[in-house]
Write a structure and sequence with these properties.
alpha+beta, 18% strand
């Protein structure tokens, strides 16, 4: 991910350039005040900013302030913490990663598409084009997760950009069964 064209955001997370450690994955948690309740509407996204775009989405759910605090800790537990960012950056990350992946033929499907649509509504309208550069070193870089189908992804990338238009690394050669949620059980 490249923030060179977005200097207003580049300094928000000094560790952001350490994306190697998290294999291009970015978690975004959005909390929006509700006009009908004292609880915030909370949604989440797991993004592959190097290649696949939206890996998972959690549809909005009402949460009290104390529940949100606990949820936030669990949500970002795979990372060394979290950084509160402006809504514009969250919007640019989510919609930008989705658009980047769409350019290669990757779209959220089925239940993920529905949850992405519901969760994305909390972000408002996407800003086109976003200032964030996606991919790694100017190209898609695919690192499969435990629920990805590497052969299908590589076929799609070859059709979209040719053999020299991307890089990849197969991290989990044996794939578990499909259907498990990446974020675990809902609250």
């Amino acid at each position: 991910m490249d923030l060179e064209s977005a200097p207003q955001w580049a300094g928000l997370d000094p560790g952001a350039c350490d994306a190697e450690e998290v294999r291009g994955l970015v978690a975004v948690l959005v909390a929006a005040d509700s006009t009908r309740s004292t609880k915030a509407q909370v949604a989440g996204f797991l993004l592959d900013v190097w290649c696949l775009g939206v890996k998972n989405a959690l549809a909005p759910e009402p949460m009290s302030e104390s529940r949100l605090a606990g949820h936030r800790g669990l949500y970002f537990s795979a990372y060394e913490g979290h950084v509160q960012v402006p809504a514009d950056l969250a919007r640019a990350l989510v919609f930008g990663a989705a658009a980047y992946a769409r350019g290669f033929g990757f779209e959220p499907e089925g239940e993920l598409a529905e949850e992405f649509t519901e969760a994305a509504a909390l972000l408002g309208e996407p800003a086109d084009p976003g200032p964030i550069g996606f991919g790694r070193d100017g190209k898609p870089f695919f690192v499969n997760g435990p629920y990805d189908d590497p052969e299908a992804v590589l076929r799609t990338l070859r059709r979209a950009v040719g053999d020299d238009g991307f890089h990849f690394e197969v991290a989990f050669p044996e794939q578990p069964s499909r259907g498990r949620r990446l974020f675990g059980p809902r609250w």
